[in-house]
């Protein structure tokens, strides 16, 4: 009996030893396998990081067109002719605005205009066209030659009327674009349908006395029902009306140049347009908007032309975001003034516009160290405790704020790797910086940008605080 017990005990021990040996072998095999794959992964990781993204190596069609467009070299006589053309077009559009008949409700005659789009306080109308008033073959020639009366050529016309909440300086600050980067950032933010753009020549630049005055030759590429591009003169500024009020304008008029190539090989048709917008401070909080535009698509397909007009009318509704665009530009300027040009720009060479690397740097490197007893900059709420309020750093002032006192705002910046690409990021701003940015004068900020001074951040803060003191008194 004892021998059977010993034999069974020995066999049990052998079985357990065998199972333990198999288990150790499995574990050793697993450890070897993990080590093997870990070594393989560690060897492959540096190679993967050094290989660039193939999507970045392939240039898009609009980037190829931008590179093919040369910098325009215009003589003094050409610049004078462009200036005279812009003045003539501005006077023509001012007269046309005065002659527009509106109803008591502020709408155009329904027998002539049909409403096609509306958003908030903005409405877009399309003019009825008879068969005998269709655009003739000479309309494009007239527009390229600087025809001062495009309304007489029978081209399709759109009209926009309405109001925008804000002030005139903010609307003009969003309208002005002195560089290619600023044009692309504005289009990315307001979504006006411009796929790519470029400033080809600067005829007149803004000054400290007239910061909103610009006159440039620009190129725009739209991806509509049929891809089209435009070469235009683009002018902005302020002019007095018959009642002595300052009226802001934004003129875009097609003009042909023999030095500029066309891109029919890319499937892009060179079209023509003449669009002029006027802005007037109607009330202390509302800006009255007026836009009239004529378009020649070089197409006799009425259905495609109507589709293009409908798309353009939708793009015109982006004007409702002009004030938001101005606020975004103010916040970006405040960040640049606080951090400096070098710290705001990315590691690569950057122009006066912002870069994605610089904004990421603001959110990380400029954060202050949180200490015990730290409180929110706005409401003075202490961090931690039972509710465990998590602090967040403001991208503008780099101070800690609580969740209740911060807002995420969209900021459009130029990519540091691809200068033709605009990245949009949502950054955290405290309520105090947003309020100070909205109250700051856009004309003053634009003057400071032109001067390139570093003391403007503190001076603007003093101006804002002085205005707040005067308002309370």
UniProtKB/TrEMBL annotation:
Chain positions covered by the region annotation Disordered: 344-367
Superkingdom of the organism of origin: Eukaryota
Transmembrane residue ranges: none
Ranges of biased composition (kind: Low complexity): 344-356
PANTHER family for this protein: FYVE-FINGER-CONTAINING RAB5 EFFECTOR PROTEIN RABENOSYN-5-RELATED, RABENOSYN-5
Protein name as it appears in the record: FYVE-type domain-containing protein
Organism whose genome encodes this protein: Phytophthora nicotianae P10297
Lineage, top ranks: Eukaryota, Sar, Stramenopiles, Oomycota, Peronosporomycetes
């Amino acid at each position: 009996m004892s021998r059977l017990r010993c034999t069974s005990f020995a066999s049990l021990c052998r079985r357990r030893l065998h199972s333990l040996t198999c288990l150790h072998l499995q574990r050793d095999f697993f450890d070897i396998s993990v080590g093997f794959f870990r070594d393989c992964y560690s060897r492959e990781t540096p190679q993967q990081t050094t290989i660039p993204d193939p999507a970045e190596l392939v240039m898009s069609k609009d980037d190829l067109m931008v590179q093919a467009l040369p910098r325009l070299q215009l003589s003094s006589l050409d610049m004078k002719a462009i200036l005279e053309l812009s003045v003539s077009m501005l006077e023509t559009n001012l007269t046309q605005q005065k002659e527009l008949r509106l109803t008591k409700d502020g709408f155009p005659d329904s027998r002539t205009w049909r409403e096609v789009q509306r958003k908030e306080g903005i409405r877009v109308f399309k003019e009825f066209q008879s068969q005998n008033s269709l655009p003739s073959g000479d309309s494009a020639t007239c527009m390229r030659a600087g025809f001062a009366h495009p309304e007489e050529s029978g081209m399709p016309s759109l009209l926009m009327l309405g109001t925008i909440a804000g002030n005139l300086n903010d609307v003009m600050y969003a309208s002005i674009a002195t560089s290619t980067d600023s044009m692309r950032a504005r289009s990315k933010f307001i979504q006006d349908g411009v796929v790519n753009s470029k400033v080809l020549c600067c005829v007149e630049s803004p000054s400290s006395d007239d910061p909103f005055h610009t006159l440039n030759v620009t190129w725009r590429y739209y991806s509509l029902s049929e891809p089209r591009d435009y070469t235009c003169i683009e002018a902005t500024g302020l002019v007095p009306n018959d009642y002595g009020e300052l009226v802001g304008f934004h003129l875009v008029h097609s003009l042909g140049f023999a030095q500029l190539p066309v891109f029919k090989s890319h499937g892009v048709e060179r079209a023509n347009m003449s669009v002029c917008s006027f802005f007037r401070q109607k009330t202390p909080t509302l800006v009255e908007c007026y836009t009239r535009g004529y378009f020649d698509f070089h197409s006799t397909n009425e259905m495609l032309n109507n589709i293009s007009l409908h798309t353009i009318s939708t793009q015109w509704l982006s004007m409702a975001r002009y004030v938001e665009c101005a606020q975004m530009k103010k916040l970006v300027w405040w960040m640049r003034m606080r951090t400096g040009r070098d710290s705001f720009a990315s590691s690569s060479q950057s122009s006066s516009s912002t870069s994605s690397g610089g904004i990421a740097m603001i959110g990380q490197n400029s954060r202050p160290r949180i200490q015990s007893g730290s409180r929110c900059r706005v409401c003075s709420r202490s961090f931690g405790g039972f509710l465990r309020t998590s602090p967040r750093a403001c991208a503008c002032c780099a101070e800690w704020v609580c969740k209740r006192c911060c807002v995420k705002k969209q900021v459009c910046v130029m990519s540091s790797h691809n200068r033709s690409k605009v990245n949009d990021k949502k950054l955290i701003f405290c309520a105090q910086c947003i309020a100070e940015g909205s109250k700051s004068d856009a004309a003053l900020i634009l003057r400071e940008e032109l001067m390139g001074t570093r003391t403007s951040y503190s001076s603007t803060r003093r101006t804002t605080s002085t205005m707040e003191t005067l308002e309370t008194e």
